[in-house]
Design goal:
Blueprint lengths: L2 H26 L8 E7 L2 H15 L3 E7 L1 H4 L5 H11 L3 E4 L2 H6 L21 H10 L10 E3 L1 E6 H6 L11 H9 L2 H6 L4 E5 L4 H10 L17 H16 L2 E3 L18 E7 L2 H5 L6 E5 L9 E2 L3 E2 L2 E4 L6 H11 L2 H9 L6 E2 L2 H7 L12 E2 L9 H19 L5 H24 L1
Parallel strand pairs: 1-2, 1-3, 6-7, 6-8, 10-14
Antiparallel strand pairs: 3-12, 4-11, 4-13, 5-8, 5-9
Organism: Paenibacillus sambharensis
GO cellular component, one term: cell envelope
Main location: other
C-alpha cells in the first residue's frame, strides 16, 4: 500500500475519532449546538411548570433551554416509589420534582446540595423552617429545595372578642386551650343561636377529631394496621368535641355548592374562631369585621411543630446528572428572594411563599408570622383504600353524634367504632390476599 493511501486512511480514522469525541462531549455537556444550556426537568406537566417556574426563569436566563418530562401520565395508574425510581433512571433528568424525599435520598437519587451553596446563595433566603425540615430528611444535608409550603392557622374575629371583652387567642395554644376559649362564647350562643366560639369548616366530626389527633402525631391505626381508637387519648379528643357541641359553642358546616365561603359561619361573622389554610385570607379580606390569626393549635410536647405545615414542590438534582452546575442555577433561582417577589406579584393563593420577609411586606396588618413559627413534622399516615376511608369517616361521625345525642356512652361508642373499623380493614386485607 502506498504512503498516500495510508495517510488518507489515518486522516479518515482521525476525523472519525474527533467526530465521536465531539459527539460524546456534546452528550456529556449541557451545551447545545446553538450555544444554549439544556436542562431536563421532571415535573407534573409542562404547562404548569412553565407557568409557575419556567417562563420567569427563562426570561432572566435566556441562554437556557428546558425540556419537561411529564409525570401526570404516570400518576393515572398510580406511581409507586419503585416505579418512580425506574422512571428517573430511564429518563435521566437533571432536576426531579420529589414527592417522597426520604425514599429518594435513601435510593441515592438526589445530589447533596451543600457543596454548591455559598454565603451569597439565594437558597440562604428560604425560610429556616422549610430548609430545617428538608435537612432533617437528609440527615443534616440539603438534598432538595422548595420555594413554597402549605400551612394552616387559627383565625379569630377581633370584633367578637372585643364585644364580649374576651382576651384574644395566642400563638401555640393547645386544642384544649382553644375550646376553653371558645366556651366563653357559650352565653353568646345561648342568646343568639347563630353565634359560636369555634367553627369547623366541615360537617364530619370524625374529621375534626383526626385533625386534633394529628397535632399529637396520632392516627387511628398503628404501624401494623391495628385500629387504636379505643384508647384514653382518643376518648379525650372525642369527649372534647362532643361536650363542646352539647354546650353549644362548637358549630360545623360547609360543603356548599355555591360561592366558596358563602355559608362559612366565621366569614359571616357568626363564629369567633376557625382553623383554615392560608388561602382563606383571600376570602376573609372581604369580611365586614376585623380579624387576625395565630398559629394552628399544637401539642404541648411539641409546641414548635405541626403536621398542618408541610413542604411541597420539592426540587432536587438527579445524582447522575452531568449538568449539576446548570441544574443548581435553577434551584438557586427558585429559592431566591427575587423569585419570591415574582410569586408574590403573580398573586399566588393556594400556597405560602417560603420567604417570610417577602410575605410580611404583602400584609403588614395581620400576623402572617403565624404560618412561619411552626416547623413541619413528619406523620406516618395509615394507608387506607379510598372507598374504605369514606366508610370509616361516616362511622366515626355517626359514633360521635350518638354520644352527643345520648344514645351511647363514650366507652361503648368508641369500643364499637374500633371493632367496626377493624372488621372493615380485616375483610379488605383478606380480599387483597386472595
Amino acid at each position: 500500500m502506498n504512503r498516500s493511501k495510508i495517510m488518507r486512511r489515518k486522516s479518515l480514522f482521525t476525523a472519525v475519532i474527533l467526530s465521536l469525541a465531539c459527539t460524546l462531549l456534546l452528550s456529556c455537556s449541557n451545551q447545545l449546538p446553538d450555544g444554549s444550556v439544556g436542562l431536563k426537568i421532571m415535573y407534573d406537566n409542562s404547562d404548569e411548570f412553565f407557568s409557575k417556574y419556567g417562563n420567569v426563569f427563562l426570561t432572566k436566563f435566556p441562554e437556557y433551554q428546558i425540556e419537561v418530562i411529564p409525570l401526570d401520565p404516570h400518576y393515572k395508574d398510580g406511581l409507586t416509589n419503585e416505579e418512580f425510581k425506574t422512571l428517573v433512571e430511564s429518563e435521566m433528568p437533571d432536576i426531579i420534582l420529589v414527592d417522597n424525599i426520604q425514599y429518594a435520598i435513601e435510593e441515592g437519587l438526589l445530589l447533596d446540595l451543600d457543596p454548591y451553596i455559598d454565603k451569597d446563595s439565594g437558597l440562604n433566603e428560604i425560610s429556616e423552617n422549610v430548609t430545617g425540615y428538608l435537612r432533617k430528611q437528609g440527615g443534616g444535608s440539603l438534598y432538595a429545595v422548595s420555594p413554597t409550603f402549605t400551612g394552616q392557622a387559627l383565625y379569630y374575629n377581633k370584633d367578637m372578642f372585643d364585644h364580649f371583652n374576651i382576651a384574644y387567642p395566642t400563638n401555640q395554644m393547645t386544642w384544649e386551650d382553644v375550646f376553653l376559649l371558645a366556651s366563653k362564647f357559650s352565653n353568646a350562643a345561648s342568646n343568639n343561636s347563630a353565634s359560636y366560639g369555634y367553627y369547623y369548616n366541615g360537617r364530619n366530626l370524625f374529621s375534626l377529631a383526626t385533625d386534633i389527633a394529628l397535632s399529637s402525631q396520632m392516627t387511628y391505626t398503628d404501624r401494623n394496621g391495628n385500629i387504636t381508637l379505643y384508647s384514653d387519648r382518643w376518648k379525650r379528643i372525642i369527649e372534647l368535641i362532643s361536650s363542646s357541641v352539647q354546650q353549644g359553642f362548637l358549630a360545623t358546616g360547609g360543603g356548599s355548592q355555591g360561592e366558596p365561603y358563602a355559608d362559612n359561619l366565621f366569614f359571616l361573622g357568626n363564629a369567633a374562631m376557625t382553623t383554615d389554610y392560608s388561602n382563606a385570607m383571600t376570602y376573609f379580606s372581604k369580611a365586614n369585621f376585623e380579624w387576625d390569626l395565630v398559629t394552628i393549635p399544637v401539642d404541648p410536647s411539641t409546641p414548635d411543630q405541626s403536621p398542618s405545615v408541610y413542604v411541597n414542590n420539592m426540587f432536587g438534582i438527579y445524582s447522575k446528572t452531568n449538568h449539576s452546575e446548570a441544574a443548581f442555577k435553577f434551584l438557586e433561582y427558585i429559592g431566591s428572594k427575587e423569585f419570591a417577589n415574582t410569586l408574590l406579584r403573580s398573586g399566588i393563593k393556594d400556597q405560602l411563599i417560603a420567604n417570610e420577609d417577602v410575605v410580611k411586606a404583602m400584609d403588614s396588618s395581620h400576623n402572617i408570622e403565624a404560618f412561619y413559627k411552626l416547623r413541619p413534622i413528619e406523620i406516618v399516615y395509615p394507608i387506607i383504600p379510598l372507598h374504605l376511608d369514606t366508610k370509616i369517616y361516616a362511622l366515626g361521625d355517626e359514633a360521635i353524634r350518638s354520644i352527643i345525642n345520648g344514645d351511647r356512652d363514650i366507652d361503648t361508642a368508641m369500643k364499637q367504632l374500633q371493632e367496626e373499623i377493624q372488621f372493615l380493614l380485616d375483610n379488605e386485607n383478606k380480599k387483597q390476599a386472595e
